[in-house]
Specification:
The chain is of the alpha+beta class. It has 3 domains: 299 residues, Bira Bifunctional Protein, Domain 2 (BirA Bifunctional Protein, domain 2, 2-Layer Sandwich); 97 residues, no CATH class; 108 residues, Anticodon-binding domain (Rossmann fold), CATH 3.40.50. The protein is 27% helix and 26% strand. The strands form 8 sheets. It has a 7-stranded mixed β-sheet with strand order 3-14-15-21-18-17-16. Strands 6, 7, 8, 9 and 10 form a 5-stranded mixed β-sheet that branches. A hairpin with a 6-residue loop joins β4 and β5. It starts with 6 loop residues before the first helix and ends with a helix. Bound molecules: glycyl-adenosine-5'-phosphate (GAP).
Length: 545
């Protein structure tokens, strides 16, 4: 029997497996945890590292700059960068994050809880001419009965009086409510405890050096991208790269999300894998299409697929006017309602917006490339670096500000999607041949934290010695695991839950002919191979992962 549990249970099972097997732990757990922060355990750190390594290898090191890859307008170059997390504060003024990177929030004076304004909705309830708005959060809005129960409680109605309460059928968003004194907050007992919406900048603020006032104020980066833009000239001047080329960076980003949620999906500290690809304005539309398709293919190649992965082009009215295209790669995470998708990666055509902002000063996002944003006195709102960030083509001698295509992926969201996709429940025979339920992570071999596990069937007759010899040989080349504790069936199941594609068992036959059993995680097939062939056999099967 094999099957997929219903979505909510499936997500709960995945979260439980992540904790049980050491993929993910709540940060600061022994102190009660810190909302929006997650630690990767021994298996999780390998999974995420494999994802980042696969991205770096496939996007940066692995491509051949002498030939145009399939679908690319021409050959191109790629290089890497590792910029700091804290940078000059002016960078965030010119990038627009200082003024524009915010959400609206409402606070509840009674429950002391904070909500994103766009994520609160509710139903109107009326009794004997009094009308109140019973608010709830987006997730809880599914539970119709909760708003009814709270409205009944407010009007002190008993169950037998339920029909006297008029309750609207549909949920209305809080931003459509004018009179906040009529609102019953999601976790409140009295009316009118929610504050009017206030802007909340998502950047974490810190102070550099001994200065504690605004002069020393700095920010933890909310994206890795800006470190690339401000180093554009350094990279061009210190290497031989020529447009078209890309600069890639993997690193931590920080956003003080008002409502972190859905396991690691919306965290306050997370890792991004970003490319800023610099090209001529005339070819930028073709490069946009190339990167959009290349990035979609990458996820498919590593095993995300079916109707759970989609590429969604933004509508024209969702685009900034300087952008000729933005697409999101989205995955149907099991914590989302059926038919809904969550963003894994965005691929954006950013025009010359960022380089020109860092050169001249903050551009007006509504009118770029025509105007600097100015204050009421007509002075530029934020000055740029004043440095020339244009590019001169040494063959044609023309000078231009390159256009940028930005594929921006989240390493944690990718890890979560690969975990969700890999998770299966089925049955496998135990050592007595009895079929038993198992949870298995069917990771692509490149992503599997452990590539092979080595077991002696029993802890005697010289089997552990031979198994350790096999383990030591493999360990030099691959991430492998040795286990001699407990029944072999239970050891197989532990490795299935870790997503290990192959298990090698030393048994009685090994003592006779130096062959071992090789078990395949997915097909459950077992075959015998020679000890001397173990390395080459596993390497061939995992495709040099
Ligand atoms: N430089 C463009 C940029 O940062 P974004 O859409 O805000 O664009 C890019 O972020 C990716 O970073 C997202 O697609 C997502 O994978 C990841 N990401 C963004 N916010 C995140 C959060 N709070 N938690 C985890 N990952 C996040």
């Amino acid at each position: 029997m094999s099957g997929t549990p219903p979505m909510a249970k499936r997500m709960a099972d995945i979260v439980a497996l992540c904790k049980r097997r050491g993929f993910l732990f709540q940060s600061s757990e022994i102190y009660g945890g810190l909302n929006g922060f997650w630690d990767y355990g021994p298996l999780g750190v390998e999974l995420k590292r494999n994802i980042k390594d696969a991205w770096w290898r496939d996007m940066v090191l692995g491509h051949n700059e002498l030939d145009a890859p399939a679908g690319a307008p021409s050959a191109y170059e790629m290089t890497g960068l590792d910029a700091t997390i804290i940078m000059h504060p002016q960078i965030w003024k010119c990038s627009g994050h200082y003024d524009l990177f915010h959400d609206f929030m409402v606070d509840c004076r009674e429950s002391k809880k904070r909500y994103r304004h766009d994520q609160v909705r509710g139903r109107w309830a009326e009794f004997e001419g009094e009308r109140i708005f019973v608010a709830t959060t987006v997730e809880a809005a599914e539970e119709d009965e909760d708003t009814r129960r709270r409205a009944m409680k407010h009007f002190k109605l008993r169950p037998k009086d339920a029909e006297r309460l008029a309750l609207s059928d549909t949920f209305t968003s809080l931003d459509r409510v004018d009179d906040m004194t009529r609102v019953l907050g999601p976790d409140a007992k009295s009316l009118g405890t929610l504050t009017p919406p206030r802007e909340f900048n998502l950047m974490f603020k810190t102070f550099v050096g001994a200065l504690s006032g605004e002069e020393g104020a700095a920010f933890l980066r909310p994206e890795t991208a800006q470190g690339i833009f401000v180093n554009f000239k350094n990279v061009v001047d210190s290497t031989r790269v020529r447009v078209p080329f890309g600069i890639a960076q993997i690193g931590k980003s920080f956003r003080n999300e008002i409502t972190p949620r859905n396991f690691t999906f919306r965290s306050r500290e997370f890792e991004q894998m970003e490319i800023e690809f610099f090209c001529r304005p005339t070819t930028s539309a073709e490069w946009y299409r190339y990167w959009r398709d290349r990035r979609m293919r990458w996820y498919l190649e590593l095993g995300l697929g079916g109707d759970r992965l989609r590429l969604r082009e933004h509508d024209r009215d969702e685009l900034s006017h300087y952008s000729t295209g933005t697409a999101d790669i989205e995955y149907a995470f099991p914590f989302l309602p059926p038919g809904e998708f969550g963003e894994l990666e965005g691929i954006a055509h950013r025009g010359d917006f960022d380089l020109r902002s860092h050169m001249e000063g903050k551009l007006d996002p509504a009118t770029n490339p025509l105007r600097l944003e100015v204050d009421s006195d007509g002075k530029p709102r934020w000055r740029g670096s004043g440095k020339d960030l244009s590019y001169r083509d040494d063959l044609t001698n023309d000078r231009f500000v390159p256009h940028v295509i930005e594929p921006s992926a989240g390493a944690d969201r990718a890890a979560l999607a690969f975990l969700c996709e890999a998770y299966h429940e089925d049955e496998a025979p135990d050592e007595d041949g009895v079929m038993r339920k198992r949870a298995v992570l069917r990771f692509h071999p490149r992503l599997a934290p452990i590539k092979a596990a080595v077991f002696p069937l029993v802890k005697k007759d010289g089997m552990p010695e031979i198994a350790k010899e096999v383990y030591s040989t493999l360990k030099r080349r691959l991430s492998v695991f040795y286990d001699e504790k407990g029944a072999v069936g239970r050891r197989y199941r532990r490795q299935d839950e870790a997503g290990t594609p192959y298990c090698i068992t030393v048994d009685g036959q090994t003592l006779v002919d130096r062959t071992v059993t090789l078990r395949d995680r997915d097909s459950l097939e077992q075959c015998r191979i020679r000890i001397d062939d173990c390395v080459s056999e596993i390497e061939t099967r995992i495709g040099g992962a």
